[in-house]
Amino acid sequence: MIGGSIGRGAGRIINAMVRGLARHTVNPNTLTVIGVLINLVCGLLFGFGYFFYAGLVLIVANLFDMLDGKLARSTNQVTAFGGFLDSSLDRLSDMVVLVGVLIFYARDTPYHSTLNVFLVSAALVGSVLISYTSARAESLIPKCDVGFFRRPERVVLLIIGALSTHHGSTNFFANRMPAVLWILAIGSYWTFAHRMFYTWRETQRIVAAKAMATNATAAPDETSTKPHTARPTQEQLDAAHRASISR
Prior knowledge:
- The protein is mainly α.
- It has one domain (2-215): Up-down Bundle (Four Helix Bundle (Hemerythrin (Met), subunit A)), CATH 1.20.120.
- Helices cover 77% and strands 0% of the residues.
- Helix 1 (2-23) crosses helix 3 (51-74), helix 2 (28-47) runs antiparallel to helix 3 and helix 3 packs antiparallel against helix 6 (151-163).
- The chain starts with a helix and ends with a helix.
- The model has no long low-confidence stretch (mean pLDDT 85).
């Protein structure tokens, strides 16, 4: 009940913002580009170790990511290029944020961690594989968005890890970014494998359906293949009888 109330409240706020943007005839592609620029700032903050502020900036960046699509739909500005631009820049946003986290753990500081560098790299590759698999699969099947670790879930986890990071704190709930990186690394490849299996199953189903349709159309019609022998008429029978008598 509480979660639903929060969701409805957030929805009303976002809808009000969309109406305001629509009145000022803002182009949705502009919001998409602004969102990427904010994510670049987020990546820089991560790289310099300001995780808490990076988490706040990441929330703002993804607010723009929600607004551009809603604005495009509400103002009938949905275009093929707009969808392409949004999808492409989302991949860039994902990468610059994770590269920022990677740089922080790779730097020569007390928080340097080769393991965390590996986990960030694995999460980065996994996020690219998830989006690539989905895009490639949808050239073969209608839709491929299965799996739990889609982009919104990955972003939420990064926000939690960032906001919980307070270097030097001994609180149990503080500095959860390494745990988040483990979840991102494992969950990303799980989702990648899920989409691979789902695509294989759907393509097999399509092949089987086409084979059944082909067999149904190519099956011979028994009534049409039987040789047709005409029954002789009474005149033909009489003529044959007279011929046999004359012999």
